[in-house]
Design a protein that fits this description.
The chain has 480 residues and is of the alpha+beta class. It has 14 helices and twelve strands. The protein has a four-stranded mixed sheet, with helices on one face. A two-stranded antiparallel sheet has the order 1-2. Strands 7-8 form a two-stranded antiparallel ribbon. Helix 7 crosses helix 8. The protein is globular, with a radius of gyration of 24 Å.
Length: 480
């Protein structure tokens, strides 16, 4: 059985180690000795039912090792987790380490920097991400892309899959793989599995692939690929905003101004610094427009991510003002984020099976918001933000927004009419091929380059024969 605290393979800061030792004691059985004067309780004629206690505690980085606040903390997975760690949907794989064994209290609390910690941390983030989306969808299980025709295979998580500065989701391998590397000039490696943002991002790819299996194909237009990358980044943001301690920390740092610098908007900070980006790999709080990004998928994804982040900040500002006398701002942000995430997921599901554009999703969000009876001002925020980013075209000028005259005291505020369908803003890159050169490992996988959309939508992926089909056809013609 793995020990709870073992020597770390990479150094960690003293504060994190002290927290780990403190949390370790919570996972041990009580060692209190019986006191001689303790009275014997009177018999109770009717037995009290003993509930079946499920769930395990995990010690995780709430962001990554470079983000000291919120730093390292316990999280609780309220379902049965077996040694591995594993359950019916997620397994963990690390040679010479797994299965990692829980403590006698069924907790997975290990020293940061050890292989056991990396296994437990990675499992917990993947499990929390899947659970978040299932709750948003009413609690029903969400399928992985291969869960068709009675297949119930789980996804396998590889915390230390090899040495390279990347991570990816593979449909063919039914796996999430996280790598590590030593940056130039550094003495210590960076492990991508220790970043909540990176693990959640790649899990986001796998969740969306189960919902829209036709979207990963390379034959789709750039915006379809951008939706996949954006969903990964937004998954990291929404996961953080589903946890009250992270919400409270972000609001305390920013005084409830989501456009102030914060760890929510900055994605994969440690990884970004290692690659030369001091503010993180990407920043959701950006002002990018479609005319500024072309057809490179990671760049174009930031337009959609930034638009959703702006809408989140707008709705939060409105609701914080409206509910200031009855709710703490942290509770308001927790609820606003869950509501917006739900609208987004339903809109993605309702969008076309292939070739989806940003305008397709925005229009679906407008209709879903209206059907749910949300305040008109929510849709005003959506129309305005994605008009500014050149995703849709507004039939009326956005004078009130540009002049700072939006009335946050009026739930029915609208510029022009409360339109539920807007024309797409046209750009030369709309029909260009996807440029995936700067994407994460997922989008660069050869298995998604298949042109057979029917095979993709059925949960398949490109085989070696598919990838070599044009070459073999040419050889057959040459060797007649």
């Amino acid at each position: 059985m793995s020990t709870l605290l073992t020597e770390a393979t990479t150094p960690v800061n003293s504060e994190a180690e002290q927290k780990a030792r403190f949390y370790m004691h919570l996972s041990l059985p009580s060692s209190r000795a019986a006191h001689a004067a303790t009275p014997i309780p009177s018999p109770i004629p009717i037995p009290i039912p003993i509930p079946i206690l499920l769930g395990s505690r995990f010690l995780i980085w709430k962001q990554d090792p470079s983000v000291t606040d919120p730093g390292i903390r316990l999280t609780f997975i309220p379902t049965l987790v077996l040694d591995g760690p594993q359950d019916s949907r997620v397994t963990t794989n690390l040679a010479a380490t797994t299965p990692v064994h829980a403590s006698t209290n069924r907790d997975f609390i290990f020293t940061p920097g050890t292989p056991e910690f990396d296994c437990a941390h990675s499992f917990a983030i993947v499990r929390e991400t899947l659970t978040m989306y299932q709750r948003i969808r009413g609690g029903a299980p969400l399928p992985w892309a291969w869960n068709t025709g009675g297949n119930i295979d789980p996804i396998s998580v590889f915390p230390r899959a090899g040495v390279t500065p990347n991570a990816f989701y593979s449909r063919a391998d039914k796996a999430l793989k996280f790598f590590f590397f030593t940056p130039s000039g550094a003495s210590l490696p960076v492990f991508t599995c220790r970043s909540l943002d990176i693990v959640a991002h790649e899990t986001g790819h796998s969740v969306l692939d189960g919902l829209k299996p036709g979207w990963l194909g390379g034959a789709n237009p750039p915006q379809t690929g951008g939706l996949h990358e954006s969903f990964g980044d937004l998954t990291a943001i929404f996961l953080a905003l589903s946890q009250l301690d992270q919400v409270e920390s972000a609001l305390a740092q920013t005084k409830a101004n989501l456009h102030d610098k914060n760890f929510l908007a900055s994605l994969a900070e440690q990884f970004g610094v290692a690659l030369g980006f001091p503010q993180g790999l990407r920043n959701a709080d950006n002002d990018l427009k479609l005319s500024q990004v072309g057809n490179e998928v990671h760049a174009i994804s930031q337009v959609f991510t930034g638009g959703i982040y702006d809408v989140l900040a707008d709705i939060f500002a409105f609701e914080k003002n409206r509910q200031s006398a009855t709710k703490d701002p942290a509770r308001v942000l927790l609820e606003v984020a869950s509501q917006l995430c739900s609208v987004l997921v339903d809109a993605l599901i309702a969008a076309p099976a292939t070739g989806a554009t940003y305008a397709d999703v925005v229009n679906q969000m407008l209709n879903i918001s209206n059907t749910r009876g949300e305040p008109v001002i929510y849709r005003t925020f959506l129309r305005n933000r994605f008009t500014l980013r050149e995703v849709v075209v507004s039939p009326t000028p956005l004078n009130a927004m540009l002049e700072g005259r939006i009335n946050l005291n009026d739930p029915g505020f609208v510029e022009g009419k409360d339109l539920l369908k807007l024309d797409a803003h046209r750009h030369p890159s709309d029909k260009a091929p996807q440029d995936r050169s700067d994407c994460c490992g997922t989008m660069q996988r050869l298995e998604y380059l298949i042109d057979d959309q029917a095979k993709l939508q059925a949960g398949g992926s490109a085989s070696h024969d598919d990838l070599l089909s044009s070459q073999t056809a040419e050889l057959r013609r040459a060797f007649k």
